[in-house]
Amino acid sequence: MLKIIRxxxxxxxxxxxxxxxxxxxxxxxxxxTSKKGxxxxxxxxxQNEEAFYVVSGLLxxxxxxxxxxxGAGDFFGIEAYDMHSFRFLEDTVLVSxxxxxxxxxxGTKDIFSE
Length: 114
Known about the structure:
This protein is mostly beta strands. It has strands at 2-4, 9-13, 16-20, 28-34, 39-43, 50-56, 58-63, 66-71, 75-78, 84-88, 92-98.
């Protein structure tokens, strides 16, 4: 299921903006950059819930056939076992967070495309 997430805290003044995405609950955090026209994903995770914060750009997300568009400042999540893919409509930077981490202790990865 695709879900919209609220940031924990946002503050803006004359110096700029601070956006606190989370303060607990995720163990692996990545920054992804993708070029316009790229498609990523078409997989799912058995052990991880994911959250994504769009820093800049625009993308279309498909989760189990449900499609939504997200742009700068949007924050959304994908639950374990949900097949998902991203199509980047603009050059995009996003932060990805995994509840447990994709690399498992036995050296395998929690990424499935079956």
